[in-house]
Amino acid sequence: MPSSRPAAAPSGVVTEYLLLGLAFDRLEEGFVDAYTGDPTLRAAVQNAPAPHPSRLADTARGLQTDLPGDLDPGRAAFIAAHLRALECSARKFAGEEIGFVEEVRAYFDVDIAPGDPATYRDAHAELAVALDVPGATAESLTAAYTAYRRAEEIPPERVDDCVRAFSGALRERVRAVYPLPDSEIVDFEVVADKPWSGFNYYLGGYRSRVAINGDLTQHMSSLPQLIAHEAYPGHHTEHCRKEQLLVGGGQQEQTIFLVNTPQCLMAEGLADHALGAIIGPDWGIWAAEIYADLGLRFDGRRAQRVGRATAGLLGVRQDAARMLHDQHTDADTAAEFLQRWLLAPPERAHQMLRFLTSPLWRAYISTYVEGYRLLQQWLDSAAPAIAGAHRTTRFGRLLDEPLIPASLRAELGATP
Q: What is the pLDDT of residue 382?
């Protein structure tokens, strides 16, 4: 369903915003997560002298004063939020010391607070019940959870079959609810030596390349979540629908997707709710049927119970990031914190630290934590009688509209 309308020429402030965003890729390759706009803009940035971070910060501040220009209030608010994030990134690239909480606020327009250990203890108690070891000690709970995770490991030689089965099933379900262009496609590949478990590279023209980290063991309970997150109805689906509806409608600012901006919090929150949005709360029962067709046994009901319990541990990694960057805790202490609350083996905890200490990605953990929380609150703000249909419609808005955290908070504030 490609748009038949010619792409509208971007306004002056939009063009400057795109040029500014593209310039950050000269400072840190990968800062531009995706760009599907006018290639002459990218060429102009690549052929220009290397930008200085302080100049980029000045440009971001200056562009904020130019708003709204000829843009409607919604588009102006979207660009303004992203300019504030880019200004902070430029200051950091210039060597300015910025606290972690302030950094997260500037990038993602959310405020964060420490998690409550009581919440984590309650999650452990619920997890012990889900694993049939109620009242377990810390050591016995860790042993039970480790055994559970080991039992649901996918044999490496079967991962490709499982990826194909779930991507096909989810694609069919998504296309029936949130129509996609006939030409859309996702190519999956296995990569190594990455700080993340999966990554969507949106290539434009309704195509994505999804990389799966082969260094990490794939588990039956998490693989459906991973495919939904990266592809259907997560990142790939969102990129396709926004390219078709927003870019096709002239919103050229949507041709660029930049790391450490409000776009990321919205996208990761959306993607983490993706499986539940398209399958519902009984995703484990649905997944068990697909695994059975592949000759693999999977206790979907237990996986759902375990998932509900571990949801209470959502803030642990964000707490670890605060420990590292605001409290200047050493890496070993942060790893012990992750091992204690997430019941993670040492090697997994240190893999998490790679992400939490990456200069580019260190604040990004908050997109998963605060993005999930904010979007859950917004998705749940419906009358119980119509909650199912309402959530489907609301999730569609996340796919199709240029929403930012402030948009959701404004709607939540207006909810009776």
A: 64
The strand pair at 198-204 and 32-35 is best described as unpaired
pLDDT at position 374 is 98
Torsion of CA 200, 232, 152, 287, to 10 degrees: -170
This prediction's pTM: 0.93
57 — alpha (psi -120 to 50), left (phi > 0) or beta? alpha
Distance CA(379)–CA(259), nearest Å, equals 24
How would you classify the pairing of strands 32-35 and 256-258?
Answer: antiparallel
Cis peptide leading into 68, omega within 30 of 0?
yes
> What pLDDT is attached to residue 4?
36
Return the sign of the alpha-carbon dihedral for residues 224, 226, 227, 232: positive
| Pair type for strands 207-213 and 256-258 | unpaired
Tokens standing for residue 3: 């748009």
What residues does 212 pair with on adjacent strands?
Answer: 190, 198
Query: Distance between CA atoms of 324 and 67, rounded to whole angstroms?
Result: 37
- Residue 5 buriedness (CB in 10 A; 0-12 / 13-18 / 19+): exposed
Judged by DSSP in three states, 416 sits in: coil
Give pLDDT, residue 190.
Answer: 85
Query: What pLDDT, on the 0 to 100 scale, is given for residue 161?
Result: 94
Tokens (6 digits) for 269: 């929150």
User: Hey, what are 264's tokens?
Assistant: 């990321």
- Block means of pLDDT (10 residues each) for the chain, 416 residues, are 45 94 96 96 96 97 94 96 98 96 98 97 98 96 97 93 96 97 94 81 96 88 96 98 97 98 98 96 97 98 98 98 96 97 94 91 96 96 60 93 97 75
Report how far Cα 97 is from the mean position of its chain's Cα atoms: 26
∠257-260-265 over CA atoms, to 5°?
80
Q: Are strands 198-204 and 185-191 parallel, antiparallel or unpaired?
A: unpaired
DSSP helix/strand/coil, 209: strand
The domain locations on the chain are 12-108, 117-414
